[in-house]
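Task: sequence in, structure out. Protein: NAD-dependent protein deacylase.
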Amino acid sequence: MARTPHLVVFTGSGISAESGIKTFRASDGLWDEHPVEDVATPSAWRRDPERVLGFYNARREQIRRARPNAAHKALAGLEKAGFRVNVITQNIDDLHERAGSRQVLHLHGEILKARSSVDIRMQYRLAKGGIALGDLCDKGSQLRPDVVWFGESVPLFADACDLVSEADFLLVVGTSLAVMPAASLLNHVAYDTPCAVVDPNATELSPAGVLAINDTAGKGVPALVKHWKQQGALLLP
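Result:
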């Protein structure tokens, strides 16, 4: 019996931008309005937790209003067609899951969850609303967003490396490959595993030997998925 083709997809903010979610690095991105050192570092949390909570509460509502786009839906459709698809995302939104993807690893956490400030294992799903000062975990510690801030370790990075090393094809979508350690994931791909980058600036971003698809996620990903469905295999177009 033939082995199920295994696609590993590594997504960044570019895929969510097409759903109306601001990226961090664009000229009109989040950091223009909120310096990273004020809202996304452990020191910012210690200095002004109310400001940090307010920033993520506003982001949370934006993400709840957003909807999965054609790229999210295409990847979920490939999984439904019988391919094994694992998504590794730098994004903290839940658009992959809402599109129907079942195997999603969030490298930088999930904004629709809160977690304890003293025990990373204590997580709480936020079905509605946000986090306020005085909201405590079961150990009596202030709840914080379940996101990885700049200067913090990435707990799931080893799991992501394992997935990439097992892939039959690695697809990179909407990321500048500039944020470490996530950008080093490509170093864990087997030497003979085909890789492609879908991004409007793919030619500039793609390392040697990687197929560059200079297109938006909403156009490039569905086109690839259509090709794979027709071929029944993860072949280069």
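Confidence is low (pLDDT under 50) at residues 26-31.
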